[in-house]
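Usage

Read records sequentially. Each one opens with the input sequence:
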Amino acid sequence: MPTHAAIPAKAFDVVIAGGGSAGAVLARRLSENPNRAVLLLEAGPAYAPDAYPDVIADANRVGGDAAHDWGYHTQDRFGLGHDVRAIRGKVLGGSSGVNAAVAMRARPSDFARWSARGLDGWSWDEVLPVFKALENTPTGDDAWRGRSGPFPIRQRTMEEITPSMRAFVLASEAAGLSRIADFNGAEQDGVSPYPLNVVEGRRINTGIAYLTEAVRRRPNLTIVGGAEVDAVLFDGRRARGLRLASGETVEAGRVILSAGAFGSPAILMRSGIGRATHLQDLDIPVLQDAPVGERLKEHPFYYNVYALKREARSMDPVAGAIIWTRSSEAAPDEIDLHISGTHIFDPARSPTGGAIVLACSVTLPKSVGSVRLASRDPRAMPLIRYNFCEDPSDLRRIMEAVRLSRRIGRTAPFSDVVEAEMYPGTDIDDDAALRRAVLSSIDGYAHPTSSVPMGGPDDPWAVVDGSGAVRGVEALNVVDASIMPDIVSAPTNVTTIMIAEAISRRLG
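and closes with the structure output:
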């Protein structure tokens, strides 16, 4: 029996599978036309804008809980030695409801790489106005920032972060990094407190920002929570609706998948769109042979953790500041390393009751992962592999980031507030030992992308075109982080929102 609210027994013009960072945007924008009937299906709870529980609304609580997460992990133990937890929000607002709320745009060089794949419409000059239009930000330069969009972005100040986080910023400057006024402005190579989609301690996910009470009252918009999607239904090669995991069906003139970098490829494959050999192994009839799930990207990172002295052990707020800079292997105009300062750590694990994490990441990884189906069961966890550091350049660069992080750890004033380095620990003092430490506990940033990539007509890896339209079929689009042709060098949430805004305009 279905556990969700009843779906009206009518044909919709558009049905959207997934109400996360992209799906919520699409539901708002596409329902602005009062003559278009829009149905938004979300597998998790569909809370009212002011009724999200603290685990979703409180910006100091990151990662959600079992009730609001898909419970996925990777299958990397065979190559990496351990699996990686693959956090994905299961709630209206999706992963924008469980992330650290870091609101940083991708850079011009990221979009130059997209354009190099034969894509039109995604150059920096074309996406900057969309980025500006989606946000409301009271600070920064008018040339770069938007003032009246639905999505709030607030630059955290030095006064708002913890004493240890201020020390991290100042020590980074002492180590030679520039202070950045606004990562969403003209310059990014340096250190700064975060820009966040947090207002008065509340994480403003897209279910809140885009699906306001006024939007939800639109008579042409229906939002249903607890509705997990199985597959797309077709008449010939034209999408005509969706089948839910409960067995119910929904008819629509257009189907949009916004189920994320794991959910969207899984739905496509269960619908017969994917590598023919993989589908045939699962006895799924092949509708379209396509490289679904074969270009998965994720930001790998390693936790460099310090116990704080008792007089500096404040851990509120948890999100503080970040370094964004270039490795020795970065191409011109690329900045490919993050060192993210947070207090996302259990204070009970620190001998002093306080800790700071400097999470070291390669933001332009070359290693490629994959998403496959484990079975035809729509509730079965997909087979996810990140293949972290399969490309040797990724390991070299993450080691470079860790060395920089540890150098900052020894630099005043940060060193003045540190009691001890917890991870990797002071006994790890040579490259071989550090390499083992990094590989043994490397994690994912929860930024998966590119499993259903966009591409130009001559791109053999492209599954969708520049508007997210699935090749080889009609009336089916994918719009979420899965369609990024390559991962961007920033946290992915704001760029995902931008993608949904841009494509909603093309869909009219």
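Summary fields computed downstream for this record:
- The radius of gyration is 22 Å.
- The chain has a mean pLDDT of 97.
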